[in-house]
Design brief:
- The protein is α/β, with parallel strands linked by helices.
- The protein has a single domain, classed as 3-Layer(aba) Sandwich (Rossmann fold).
- The chain is built from nine helices and seven strands, in the order H-H-H-E-H-E-H-E-E-H-E-H-H-H-E-E.
- A seven-stranded mixed sheet has the order 3-2-1-4-5-7-6, sandwiched between helices.
- Strand 6 and strand 7 form a beta hairpin.
- Helix 7 packs antiparallel against helix 8.
């Protein structure tokens, strides 16, 4: 049976392989909606111009970069487990404060940040409970956690179209655009097998967060979660 360490290393290697085309694939897979979702994450984080923000699982830094543009006097740490993803982010023209970090063991002191945000992190970690507890730990009292991620879609009239997009369109794009259909088959499977939004909200409450809420997007395949310390 695959251990958590082995799974984490496989995920890290997978993201390293797709890093050069990761941003383009995000735009294509979401029909450009990922930008609007990032705006909503930032709005839910309730930031001020001097906020200290951790973007954990930053990937190529899109969310961190957007925060730094909108709040130029904020301190934004863009942290990820995959060097190749951050290297792509460093080429975007504006220097971000990139930091190598494991979401399970954040290398930051207690009560360091006013907000912790993430985009498509939680479905890829081996221990969601621990990741949420770590985010709670590094938040200041009154600080906000906001997480953009996939959620298991509920059955509705759009289910056949959603399944076709997830099972056929995304892996095909991954094969021809990113040169790695298997990686995007994994991303599709992780979407379909991930927690329901209600289940993830309950884990956030168990980690200590209050005022927990979520909103579904994209025909129920995406959810933005939030909570307050």
């Amino acid at each position: 049976m695959e251990t958590e360490t082995e799974r984490a290393r496989e995920n890290q290697a997978m993201f390293a392989r797709v890093a050069p085309r990761y941003d383009l694939m995000n735009r294509l897979m979401t029909a450009g909606m990922d930008g609007a979702w990032r705006h909503q994450v930032i709005q839910r984080a309730q930031l001020e111009d001097t906020s200290r923000v951790l973007d954990i699982g930053t990937g190529t830094g899109d969310l961190a970069l957007e925060i730094s543009h909108r709040f130029p006097h904020s301190v934004v740490i863009a942290a990820d487990y995959t060097f190749e993803m951050m290297n792509v982010g460093k080429q975007k023209g504006r220097a971000l404060n990139f930091n190598s970090a494991d979401a399970l063991h954040l290398p930051f002191a207690d009560e360091t940040f006013d907000a912790v945000v993430s985009g498509f992190l939680l479905r890829n970690v081996t221990d969601i409970d621990r990741v949420l507890r770590e985010q709670y730990r590094v938040l200041k009292k009154g600080g906000r956690m906001v997480a953009l991620d996939t959620t298991r879609p509920e059955k509705n009239l759009f289910t056949p179209f959603i399944q076709f997009h997830l099972q056929t369109i995304i892996p095909t794009l991954g094969k021809f655009i990113a040169g790695n259909g298997n990686a995007y088959s994994y991303l599709t499977n992780s979407t379909q097998n991930f927690l329901r939004a209600e289940e993830l909200a309950e884990l956030a409450r168990r980690a200590g967060f209050r005022e927990v809420g979520f909103m579904r997007q994209n025909f129920g395949t995406i959810a933005i979660h939030w909570g307050t310390k």
